[in-house]
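Q: What would this chain look like folded?
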Amino acid sequence: MSENTITARILQYGERNFYGNPTDDPQSLKASQFVERNSNAWLFGVIFDQGVKAEKAWEAPYLLRRRLGHLNMRRIANMRLGELRKAIKGSRNEKALHRFVNNVSRWIKAAAKKLIDEYRGDAENIWSDCRTAGEIIERLDEFKGVGKKKAHMAAAILRTYEYPFTGFDQINMAVDVHVRRVWRRLGLVKTGDTREIHAKATELHPEYPGALDAPTWLIGRAWCHAGNPDCHGARNEEPCPLAKSCPTAKHRKRR
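A: My prediction, written as structure tokens:
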């Protein structure tokens, strides 16, 4: 199967599925709506999205607001780190909002302070006057707990919100274990090194390399598991969208 065909299939899957279907859980739905409406909560979601499942990360800002009673940037910037850590860790009957409570507490407090000092307390001012995706990525990368990888992911999400910026060729893949595994099994890359994947993504889809990220991530999480890939849909309702293109799938027996 040619690389062009594989690329087309990844993009086709991405057109139907961005970061998954809307949830039916009332709390998760409220959390999703909250981060979409509140730019500061959205930025916190980006920060939380590391080392935990995406659903948990993007629900965290909504739960943090409930625990604090607010999501006021000035108050968060000025509160004691111990108080913020306590809210993120939760009480005896609450689950922690993140597995790395200490790190995330520092990152959230630092983000609130940076928003107050540089962006008039509103995360939308990070990207509202940017003309290109590269500018947005550079600004987001300056926030502790974001970094280049998540800055690319965040720029890709902002693109779906139809903010008027250009330079989509500057948005590349937010490489993680799922992306590495899928692309190595497909034979698109050898080592799965971030630079190798970025170069390949640029070669395959130069106008917007980052478009290949979300669908690859979804496929990796849903089908292309590390130990036992579900190529032919034994545990899902349908086979992997890339099963016909993947050497791994061809060598696995249908169940």
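The chain has two domains: 3-17+172-250, 38-170.
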